[in-house]
């Protein structure tokens, strides 16, 4: 008898904690109701056939033992999962894999993690591996980094694996751990409205890299391995220290090989940063440190059952991303302002920025009012009509075997 196991894994949205993960900081994503399912049936001929109901995703077939580069396109996410599992010694069988999903792709809701995690939980069940959720999340990340070639952190997969109804997931990028925190939006009469601005991601990769390098350089100048190491110090103290080290030519920086951005061309006097670089670096550091604190403050409020009070923290996060980290675009700012004016308790861009979505915390019966206000503001400026929908914190990945 052939057994079919169905793995199901959600997309995610980040409630707060943006551009903190690569600085060893905190983020607070939640699993959303939109999910990807992988129906997986074992095969005994050592091959994997994959198909997806998503438009434009062609079916294909490959061996269980492919290596990065062998399979490209969407199927690489599935081949990557087989590869990652086999890399750590799990002898997963060939399989017939059918994917179905209502997670929008490329909207910043992590359809890629949902795809990886749905296949992972199905294979885990099929092969009787009994892997821990965090282990599977890291294997999903490994598939995406090592096989697909996308240099992402583990936050998306951790959210998809650890999500839970009525809870958000506190992700600690330093220890790569996740903790579920109660966030009963429905109980508080609230929903999260997602506004996909449909603004294209302009310059996102280059700008992301530049910010990452600036933060790594700041940590390096402060003599720590990541900005997380100065998180417990008052922000103003850290910024004064940064001012001091940047204005004083330092004698012994680490050797170039250990430098955070060794690929950048060496500056003639790398110890003395130009004045506007210093101002920019201060802002970037201020965002990361204050954003981590906002995540912790949000967790504090949620643990105290004060869900309605997190709104101002969300809005403060947006202001910091707009003014200090400078990763917003007009569509994101207009959407946040319109949502707040229409009565949202708080609103912010979510994801990496330079396009993508915002979230707004709204009363359950107000999502249409707020959505319409954003649509009108977009129409007035000639922006593409945004796509809006609501989410509540939902269950994480799980596998189901047939009962018969
Ligand atoms: P995001 O994760 O933010 O949605 P990514 O670019 O990381 O965006 O991942 C999107 C890619 O993941 C798609 O282009 C496709 O290759 C793959 N993918 C996601 N969902 C599906 C699906 N249901 N069927 C086939 N491929 C999918
Ligand atoms: Mg993705």
TrEMBL record:
UniProt xrefs under SUPFAM superfamilies: GHMP Kinase, C-terminal domain, Ribosomal protein S5 domain 2-like
GO MF, one example: galactokinase activity
Residue ranges constituting the GHMP kinase N-terminal domain according to the UniProt record: 77-163
GO biological process: galactose metabolic process
Superkingdom as given in the UniProt entry: Bacteria
Sequence ranges assigned to domain Galactokinase N-terminal in this UniProt record: 5-40
Keyword annotations from UniProtKB, A to Z: ATP-binding, Carbohydrate metabolism, Galactose metabolism, Kinase, Nucleotide-binding, Transferase
InterPro entries per record: Galactokinase, Galactokinase_CS, GalKase_N, GHMP_kinase_C_dom, GHMP_kinase_C_sf, GHMP_kinase_N_dom, GHMP_knse_ATP-bd_CS, Mevalonate/galactokinase
Gene3D superfamilies assigned: 3.30.230.10, GHMP kinase, C-terminal domain
Broad class of enzyme this protein falls into: transferase
Domain spans labelled GHMP kinase C-terminal: 301-378
Enzyme nomenclature, EC number: 2.7.1.6
Region named Disordered: 250-274
Recorded GO CC terms: cytosol
Coiled-coil positions: none
Bias type Low complexity, positions: 250-267
Sequence similarity: Belongs to the GHMP kinase family. GalK subfamily.
Protein name per UniProt: Galactokinase
Species name: Phytoactinopolyspora alkaliphila
